[in-house]
Amino acid sequence: MKRIAAILTSLVLVFSLAACGSQQAGTAAGSEAASTAQTSEAASTAQTKTEEQLLAEENDILGANDELWEKVFASMDKNVTQTTLSNNYGDFLMSAVDNAKDQFTEEEYASLKADADKIREIENQIAALPQEDAASQSAAENGSTFPQFEGKDLDGNSVDSSLFANNAFTVVNFWFSGCKPCVDEMDDLDALNQRIKEQGGEVVGINVETLDGNKQGIETAKQLLEKTGANYRNIYFDASSEAGTFALGIMAFPTTYVFDRNGRIFAPAGMMWSVVILSPTFREQPAEIVASSKRR
Question: What is the pTM of this model?
């Protein structure tokens, strides 16, 4: 959770699209002896640096070439999956750079590759840090039910987990204000919200920068919603709650889930809402969700 929050806070300032890597690390390339030495060195370095310090180093690397990295993220495959992100984040970035190499000069390409390689090594150091506890894994990956919560919408009205029971199904979109694809899809999400109301459904947004009632985060989110003409409900809750852990466990933005009236995940997550909502079978799914909810 610390990793997601730290990267998100930094990248929102410089990137139009963010995708957060996991804490799992791959094996360094090279001979067995070299690999062992690198692992040992990473472990030794990790003992003297905190995760926050290592993440700050990653952010500094990305920030130094922010314009180039913005182009990489903007051209990234929007349908990237959680499986893709489960590898070393440096490897993930390296792949993204390779896919966008035609957009850069040889010098720029070499610079981006060097950045990704540095981040790969930092990820190895992060992986060598002791895990605080098993619960640090993504709640969104491990759980199948949205945690109970009490919170508010962006206008200050109280809201809680009963919102799921009040809907036949609920489309929950996780986003943050600096994520360009998140903002770009808002008008479509609003149109979707109007359409699924007839089926007893609702679109609900959760901007992770509004958690804990962050005033600046709420104000920025409201401005973006107004600018795009989106009227669907957005909510927040305590970041330290189980629901907060779930939200901060999201590995890439935007990500969308479909929940039934019991708060159970009905449709798998997609980085873009259209992956879930505009699938060939979705028009038939609402009725199936309703029927499934009534049987429980």
Answer: 0.52
Distance CA 180, CA 34 (A): 41
**Contacts for 108-111: CB closer than 8 Å, 24+ residues apart:** 108/68, 111/65, 111/68
pLDDT of residue 44: 52
Residue environment code for 263-273, b if the CB has 16+ CB neighbours within 10 A, otherwise e: bbbbbebbbbb
Backbone dihedral angles phi then psi of residue 147, each to the nearest 5 degrees = -60, 155
Cβ neighbours of residue 292 closer than 8 Å, sequence gap 6 or more: 260, 266
Summarised one tens digit per residue, pLDDT across range 28-41 is 333 344 444 454 55
Q: What is the structure's pLDDT at 148?
A: 94
Distance between CA atoms of residues 231 and 272, nearest Å: 19
* Between 85 and 246, residue with greater pLDDT: 246
